[in-house]
Amino acid sequence: MYIVMIASECAPVSKVGGLADVVYGLSRELETRGHLVEMILPKYDCMRYDQIWGLHIAYQDLWVPWEQGAIHCSVWFGSVHGRNCFFIEPHSEENFFKRDNYYGYPDDAMRFAFFSKASLEFMQLANKHPDILHCHDWQTGLVPVMLYEMYQNLHHTRVCYTIHNFKYQGITGTHILSATQLNRPEYYYHSERLQDNVHPTALNFMKGGIVYSNHVTTVSPKHAWEALHTEQGHALGDTLHIHQNKFSGVLNGLDYEVWNPEIDPLIPHHYNIESLENKYGNKEALRDRLLLRKEFKPIIAYVGRLDVQKGVHLIRHGLFYSLQKGAQFILLGSSPESSINQEFWHLKQELNDNEDCHLEIGFDEELAHLIYAGADMIIMPSMYEPCGLAQLIALRYGTVPIVRAVGGLVDTIFDRDFSNKAITARNGYVFHEPDYTGIESAMQRAIGLWFSYPEQFRKLVIQAMQYNYSWHRSGQYYLDIYEHIRNK
User: Fold this and answer.
1) pTM greater than the 0.85 cutoff
2) How far apart are CA 194 and CA 161, in angstroms?
3) Of the four, 214, 278, 291, 414, which is 20 to 30 A from 241 by CA?
4) What residue ranges of the chain have pLDDT lower than 50?
């Protein structure tokens, strides 16, 4: 099959979150299986140009109809770690992608509406006729809309649309219709098309993606259920119900080339199940790096964003609970909200002299790998979690996850004491209520097992490492979806 990914991110060249990892990891898996995959991305000023090989202009004159005229674009081509990528660079006074950041601007809706239209214009100019267009999140929600309504010569192409986060939907006004030349507000402001389900005077990019695509996925089976039946759909539940016959959850995979303790270049001691004792060399290296006390204690960690979604109040509580129960605690992360960052900077200063605790406010890729390799447990007390990658990485590195029972965490982590899984298939600890009692109940059991039954804890570590959440299985699910919609 010929597959084109259209996305606003791709690791490692333009990465804000898990979307970037999925776009790259899934593309590589599909290529490994013999399919032709190309990506279309914005050419951001702020992206990692050192991660692109052979970058050159492939198409000098792409004119994209826009407003009352057209915007001239160049299309660049380069290889991102073996993946074939086209980068669209508009030459206009709006400077859509000549910014310091990827997102966060008042004209984000306009920027990505333009990118969506430019992607289709480029495919038309270059005579590209993929079997599948795979679009991601609100930024590309207009692609299936415009494909169906404006680009009839591409009508044989089928669209798979993946929603990574329902919270951000691309809600905007009627000016988008005139800018893209879709026009006809009376047509698109319809409850069965793009009209927002909450604000009737607004248009919704993500809703358009759901309505017009041939299949819609989100990033885990449990989160698909949550989006349909709970507030996790962020007011799109009714739309999903209408289109539920083409909606499913496919668990994200993990890039096992990047996250592999047997070959990871960012950790000092390599190991696998047979050489598990080498993991403890990484624990010592982690303590050396962060100046932690060397005693017979477990290390509990948190790696990731500090925000409400991630259960920031429970992360803070988990830190103090760990110290109270005789464990050590390491945090690596930062927040998009300055008030939360300030709170954890104050916490860092308060605990600065505590040799059982280290808070690193920010992000450091090398330290993240060392924490996964050196810690004994990791906490993920999320309020909601569409898929989650941290727990998958933790399993790979033999670091026992302690998670809340939401989204992809439910699909991947099975409680040692209370799961319906066979006892030999359990791989972590799970709690349900998003409160202090909930997280304490799971942490107490995990810490107690580590101190009192070390052989049982080691067995749990081995069971965790036996799980395979690579892209191999998820890649096959997507291929099955592609085949289904291609043959309809």
Assistant:
1) yes
2) 15
3) 414
4) none
